[in-house]
Amino acid sequence: MENQMPKEIGIDHSIGLLKEGYHFILNRSEKFQSNVFETRILGRKAICMLGEEAAQIFYDPKKFQRKDAAPNRIVQTLFGKNSVQTLDDEEHRNRKEMLMSVMTQEHLNHLMELTQMQWEQSLDKWSRMDKVVFYEEVKELLCNVAFKWIGYPLHESDAQKMTKELASMFETAAAIGPNHWVGRTFRNMGEKTIHQLIQDTRDGKIKFPQNTVLHQFAFHKDSQGKLLDIETVTVEVINMLRPIVAISIYINFSLLALIEFPEEKEKLQSFNDYSKMFVQEVRRFYPFFPFVAAKVRSDFTWNGYEFKEGTLTLLDLYGTNHDPTKWEDPEKFNPERFTHWQGSPFSFIPQGGGDYYLGHRCAGEQITIDVMKISLDYLVNRMEFTVPEQDLSFEIDDIPSIPKSKIILENIARSRSH
Ligand code: HEM
């Protein structure tokens, strides 16, 4: 039997999306008392969904496709053309295998070593400074890590430029007007540099060890046994670099949590397993990626609601992580909720849900957790600092949302106990 899907009246609600940001879907889901409803955004009809059961459907590749789903402005800034995010079926599987092939324990260990080394260097630098803007510093720290990890350490003079280009891709992804064009320009600049690097690798002008990300991607073959075109390799190398820099947003939120909930520091110092729970709660509690988009692949009915082929559908990641029917007291920062957490791959989805290989779940989720844990260890155990008076608030309608002051720290020193 078919039911009428709750429907928001009006010509277009893009303004609502801009105004309400991370709460856009959650607010309407509460109003309609439904985890699925229809609205109109970006000039077209869209279905919005939230919650574990909705995520399960959303990640069924027979029901949804990614081709032609992402708005062009996101492809032009965040994803890049023909990126893994826009592929389906065999093409997606082959590309995802390439990306996951550099997520082995060996590659992860290497990344962790580099992260630790970079933190050591930064700590030396910050100790000599009167004050630091933490968000800006951590972006550059991670940009250096990311380039070393792919096999091409950055010259000191290039680090700032590359940080700006990569960060702009995620900082402007939801922007409209001039900021969107800034994002596009920086993507073009970043792509030019990486394109040349791949070209030189293929031409043998630069030789990278075989186990580096750059070498592996540059010589990866598609499902027909052909080398990928250079533009595509460029986009996928950036798909590793950009999000490593983006972990800065979560590290910033980790610091914010330590400042806002000072009792957490003691727990982190006292219990070994607590840092994993803390990191998970930071990823659940704070806003980052609001939702993911797909298109209905062919007509189907779910819970009595009709999904028509071609309809744009958004799955609310932030809302699913704050779903009051699944999370007790979702607006409370409480790492201990993860002590005996028995969720499914569809209920806790800050970086997408489902399976890494078969679906679109974030290729770098483990990297994110590991880098956050190392960084948290520095913040809690290895450095001292003071936090001057400043505006630490962040807006729920900014995507991505970053504390206003970007967190200013003073009197940074190595911890005496280490
Ligand atoms: C900074 C924290 C991160 C967040 C919040 C995040 C979030 C996400 C989300 C929401 C998706 C889309 C899932 C979907 O389409 O269903 C995604 C996909 C992806 N992420 Fe991440 N991510 C992060 C870090 C990383 C890192 C560190 C890497 C790599 C080094 C990475 C690489 C990717 C790739 C390649 C995809 C596309 C996967 C596919 O389409 O199959 N991400 N991420």
Q: What does this protein look like?
A:
Helix content is 49%, strand content 11%. The chain has helices at 14-20, 24-32, 52-58, 72-79, 89-100, 105-127, 134-150, 156-171, 178-202, 213-218, 230-260, 263-270, 274-285, 317-321, 365-382; strands at residues 36-41, 44-50, 64-65, 131-133, 291-296, 300-302, 305-307, 312-316, 383-386, 408-414. β6 and β7 form a beta hairpin. α8 (156-171) packs across α9 (178-202) and α8 (156-171) crosses α11. The strands form three sheets. The chain has a five-stranded mixed sheet with strand order 1-2-8-5-3, sandwiched between helices. It has a three-stranded antiparallel sheet with strand order 4-10-9. The chain has 418 residues and is of the alpha+beta class. The structure holds protoporphyrin IX containing FE.
Give a topology summary:
Layout: H1 14-20, H2 24-32, E1 36-41, E2 44-50, H3 52-58, E3 64-65, H4 72-79, H5 89-100, H6 105-127, E4 131-133, H7 134-150, H8 156-171, H9 178-202, H10 213-218, H11 230-260, H12 263-270, H13 274-285, E5 291-296, E6 300-302, E7 305-307, E8 312-316, H14 317-321, H15 365-382, E9 383-386, E10 408-414
Parallel strand pairs: 2-8
Antiparallel strand pairs: 1-2, 3-5, 4-10, 5-8, 6-7, 9-10
Helix pairs in contact: 4-9, 6-7, 6-15, 7-8, 7-11, 8-9, 8-11, 9-11, 11-13, 11-15, 13-15
The structure holds protoporphyrin IX containing FE (HEM).
Protoporphyrin IX containing FE binds at residues 84-85, 96, 99, 239-240, 243-244, 246-247, 250, 288-289, 292, 317, 350-352, 360-364, 367-368.
